[in-house]
Amino acid sequence: MAAATVKVAGDGIVEPPRSALIFLGTGCSSALPNLMCLIQPSDPPVTSAPNLYPYRRTKTLITGFSICSSMHVYTTLLWCNTSLLIDYYSAEGKHKYILIDVGKTFWEQVFRWFTFYKIPRIDSVILTHEHADAVLGLDDIRTVQPFSPTNDIDPTPIYLTQDAMKSIAVKFPYLVQKNLKPGQEIRRVAQLDWKIIENDCKKPFVASGLEFVPLPVMHGEDYVCLGFLFGERYKVAYISDISRFPPTTESYISKDGGQQLDLLILDTLYKKGSHNTHFCFPQSLDAVKRICPKRALFVGMTHEFDHHRDNEFLEDWSKRNLDISLFVFRPTVVHVDDLVDALRQFSLYTESLGCVHSSIFRSIHGNMIIWYGAWMKRTHENKQLLSATLLSVLANVASMAILIEHSFFDAYAGESRDGSPAAKFFTGGIVTLSSATLSANETGVSYNSLPIFKDRFHKMDGATAGVCLKSQSMPRIVGLFVWKSLQCCYTYILTSEYRKTVVRYLDGFALDIKYDVFRVVYVSGDSVLNVQFCPQHTVLENEVDKNEVYPVVQEFKDL
């Protein structure tokens, strides 16, 4: 979806415009490729393209030199200075374009992405600090302003700290100067309106109608840089340059501090070790564990990173940091809606315990209710305490239902029709769950069945996604599939091909198999829930499709 257009769904329904985050660049301060890799190439020379993106996968061992050399060959592969464009669709029905940082590669970013996404202007600019990779594109702001040889145009607001203002006044005196000196000619320059902000979490400001909270962080022990927290319904923290979190800032954006981020965008310079002015991969992962956002994206990378391989690592890392809980109930009351209402209240309560999202499934054919919850990974001891707390809270539904069983699960495999790393379902949607209890000597069936799971999914025309779950406390696996409609679900289940392959395959194991069809009657948040089976925290630069390079775009319905 282009950031400023209306999206038309496959069924012809026009979806309302949305706010979006467009990553104009996620490279380090010197951008990529590293020019030293080109003027002093590796020996022997590179002979094959690196594994930069999924469609260029090879078995070649990738080095920094090979990545940069291949970027030189594929001229569209330039990782620009880290910069974020916020396409804010306001309540008044207007798009506002807010840019965070204007670095050395700003002209390239406008040429490549503003034209592609039809971005018509910049309404305001926010600066994290005054280093070259954040401000040296300020002069080029005039290229996206209306032309006036006499500079008779409305200036673009620039939000920055007083220290940054002092530095920029030295770097760009002609952009700061208010009045011409006697005899000085008028020259066309960017017209900017400098607005001073504080490096204090308690002093938010508003840019183009959207509120921002400054997040002071250390960028080296002698320098304070700003990140920003923004979003009304979805909380996003953008921190592009950091070497250490001050305790007050980390507490402000962490789940333990009282507000869980929907998205954390975080600095990650080198793949190994540490750096005096930036987070590196190990420190970024540790920060994600402490802050516990629902999702994290890493930016500011050097040529050490390999897009595909490192995302595979993060996929495995993320799976180890998400627990799925299932509570299965058999109602004992006639009015099951009362039980569903009680479980809705239970869902609201679990948010205070760290539940990322939750949902309620109601059996269409049988007498069963399932409560689903996703949690950030925790220790075994903490999980036992959590289970005890949840069971004590659920005691108030004992008069309405019998708790048949409950367990924590790992999502160890999944497929989706659109290629996304999550199975998405919504209130009113259809899901099927198949549960198999394994005998002691057949626990390996959970992984042995993966080939048939993947093969069958691509033949299930009516299914949009599927996830395999494995219990952490008992020999049990659960398959969850999301369907386009109830009719699509029945069509597949009743086909003879299904009975001949899947059922026949499972007959070879001593399994206690249960299967049922459910309607989703509740989803926390925005009535859409993502069952993550791939990375929660992902290193991303530019996504690739058909030999073209596109910036990462994160859409939000109501930012």
TrEMBL record:
<dbReference type="Pfam" id="PF12706">
    <property type="entry name" value="Lactamase_B_2"/>
</dbReference>
<keyword id="KW-0378">Hydrolase</keyword>
<feature type="domain" description="Metallo-beta-lactamase">
    <location>
        <begin position="98"/>
        <end position="299"/>
    </location>
</feature>
<dbReference type="Pfam" id="PF24118">
    <property type="entry name" value="DUF7392"/>
</dbReference>
<protein>
    <submittedName>
        <fullName>Hydrolase</fullName>
    </submittedName>
</protein>
<dbReference type="GO" id="GO:0016787">
    <property type="term" value="F:hydrolase activity"/>
</dbReference>
<dbReference type="InterPro" id="IPR055816">
    <property type="entry name" value="DUF7392"/>
</dbReference>
<feature type="domain" description="DUF7392">
    <location>
        <begin position="407"/>
        <end position="518"/>
    </location>
</feature>
<dbReference type="InterPro" id="IPR001279">
    <property type="entry name" value="Metallo-B-lactamas"/>
</dbReference>
<dbReference type="InterPro" id="IPR036866">
    <property type="entry name" value="RibonucZ/Hydroxyglut_hydro"/>
</dbReference>
